[in-house]
Specification:
It contains 4 helices and 7 strands, in the order βαββαβαβαββ. The chain is an alpha+beta fold and 187 residues long.
Length: 187
């Protein structure tokens, strides 16, 4: 595996997939766009796993909504500047699995396009974002468990601090990729 592999454009590969690339908008932890382009890319291995998860979600009567996928390494500087907490943001020197093309941030939507209640928003860096945070409603826990099952069924695993983040189990075996699109300069 080289750092030059061809990534899959999810909008082209899965035209019915709902995509809202949060880092191409101001609706994220930085409060401003980070990505200069609104592109949703994944490593081919992760895209194959996502295809399975998409079908599993359909079986359950839901659809996936993607918030982030491949992330240029330059973007990690923005996120670390906004939240220099390794519990939520991987240190720049380590490199994010998003920058390997093997991680994706998702939620579930119903057939009318309504986002299911997950008890905390995307990029809400708070203990209640932990997948099994106590004190949330039964409905919220059910929604998070359903999302976990759908992503696990495709071949992804979650992390302990963010209900929305999923990655291939062997992500660290993939190299960090060269940046595929530009990010805005740090402020």
């Amino acid at each position: 595996m080289t750092n030059e592999c061809k990534l899959v454009d999810l909008a082209q590969a899965f035209p019915l997939l709902a995509i809202d690339m949060k880092y191409a908008t101001a609706d994220n932890i930085c409060g401003r766009p980070i990505y200069c382009e609104d592109r949703c890319l994944l490593h081919p291995d992760a895209a194959a796993a996502l295809e399975k998860s998409i079908h599993i979600a359909e079986l359950a009567g839901y659809r996936l909504l993607v918030y982030d996928a491949y992330r240029p390494q330059q973007a990690q500087h923005h996120l670390w500047q906004a939240c220099p907490d390794p519990a939520y943001v991987v240190e720049v020197s380590q490199g994010s699995n998003h920058s390997r093309g093997t991680a994706i941030d998702v939620t579930l939507i119903d057939n009318e396009g309504r986002v299911l209640d997950m008890g905390a928003g995307f990029d809400e860096m708070h203990p209640r974002s932990q997948p099994y945070y106590p004190g949330l409603s039964h409905e919220t826990h059910r929604n998070r468990l359903l999302l976990n099952a759908i992503m696990f069924g495709g071949g992804f695993t979650g992390i302990a601090t963010e209900w929305w983040h999923f990655e291939l189990t062997d992500s660290l075996h993939y190299p960090l990729l060269t940046d595929r699109f530009a990010c805005y300069p740090l402020t």
